[in-house]
Amino acid sequence: MMDSLKTKQFFSQMESDLLLTQQLTMQKHEGYYLMFRKSKNDYILYDPVNKESLLQRTLPKDWRYQMNTMSSTIRFRRDGTIRQPGSMRFYAGNETYKVTFPFGTSRMRLDEL
User: Fold this and answer.
1) Which of 46, 86, 90, 96 fits as disulfide partner to 69, beta carbons 3.0 to 4.6 Å?
2) All structural domains of the chain with their residue ranges
3) What is the C-alpha separation between 21 and 39, in angstroms, rounded?
4) pLDDT tens-place string over residues 43-52
């Protein structure tokens, strides 16, 4: 039960962070991006114009991820569309989740495998 809540909370937060990245890009400049960092098992929202990290989220301790068809950075265009659609997988204990970032302005789709 606790793992299920932790999983739901993590992906909900990640989706909110993607929305924030998209909104900042549309309202301010195209530099903002989410970068996944394997070495720290986290991701950050980074603003290269001001050279600052706006947030950092650490994955749960027993989680890991794999970039499937995309790079480790997620960027949007000024119109809100994702620059590089693709997918990645999260491994949470015995569970596997596929996160897809589709063409267009929808932010992410989560599937449990």
Assistant:
1) 86
2) 1-112
3) 22
4) 999 999 999 9
